[in-house]
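USER: Write out one fold?

ASSISTANT:
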Amino acid sequence: MSSSGDQNRKPMCRSVWLRRQRAKMTEHHGSTVSLAGTRGPLCQKGDTKFAGNTAPVLELDKLPEDVLHHIHSLVPLRDAARAACVSHRFLRSWRRFPNLTFNWETFRLNLDGGPLCERAKKFANGIHHILQNHSGTGVKTLDLQVRPCGDVITANHLDIWLQAAVKSGIIKLALDIPRIQSIRFNFSCSLISSAASSLQSFSLSYCGFHPTPTIGCLRSLKNVSLTLVHISEDELGCFFDCTISLEKLEVALCDDITFLKIPSHLHQLRILRVFVCRRLQALNMPVSPDRFLHLRNLKIYCCGMDNFDYFSLVYFLKACPTLESFFLSAGPHFDLRRDSIIHEYSHADSLHRRRTAEFHQSNLKKVTITGFCSAKSLIELTCLILESSSSLRFLVLDTTGGYDNTGICDCMEREAVMEALRGVEAIKKYIKGKVPSSVHLEVLEPCGRCHIPKLRKLGPAR
């Protein structure tokens, strides 16, 4: 039906209209390309004038099923769902859509708009509806970011969703659940077993994970991230035994781990990040002649681990024979007097240091240690580096919390200032005399203007 202003307009055949539009485009641009999904011939009889400059029409309904499925898989989840609502062929593809990423942005949910509980229920219902209508095959990526949902998301929800999507063929699995579930939900080992042959990336947050040898060989697994996961060192070791291609490992806030041992068969491991595992006492990396042969720069962050045995990092240095630069962050410290040696020995000769056989660094030129304190294991490590690194030229020992890019010192609590001063005293007593003339030693001390007056103002420690 035409509008009142177009009552005299005659109906036009769609194919005629398309030909005229293509003719206009050709006149202006010299060629024409039809939009996907349009029907009707590109060149009709009488259109030979433009036939030489036209391109073939891409008709989606005539494409092979696998090609259409691939095209559909390339669009975002929300757009893929909309396409499934208007096309039967896309609907069939939607039921085996490969990339399932569920977060608040996917569902266009505003974190600040309306009652949180109602938005969380809407989110959970949407995920449930999608996964219940999915065929369960063809999933390549499952990324469940449901942390803001609180207790709306239950362990039962998670079990149903994971069982529906985690199958053989999945490549990436990421699970970030509400913190309230951290002591209620255990990730099933049978799930990862079902995906053992294909899984390449595995990320867990706020849950329990207790691997057993029945998992099988995770031969394709390259990236692993565990955050606030309840897992012991023995269980983590069992998990390592099932992997052969691991390249990146991140372990954060996993307080059940007291000892972390990297097995010698993980030759491809390139990135290791261990962050605030409060009970972690040591890293022991076995040495093999073919490990990290091309690694030039090494950075290790041991923040907040006051029981940590810094001397165990010698194994990392041994594993990097071509290392040129080594950076270690040893602070901040929460139990500042623990492992302190300043008041334990009266002079440097009475310090009984550990030794390690056959350790020599011929390429190491610069070593920087921030958060340097009076811990015996840290002094042992520093002295060993000095004795074993013939090419060393710069040694920077920063007893403070660091300085920003403008050179302005950071704020320090009173206890931190006191520990920094003990670190300075330890450097003078046990390290300075061992520094060769070829090495430039730089010691960063608490600021006389910002930090030291704080001790006088606050008075003696309680």
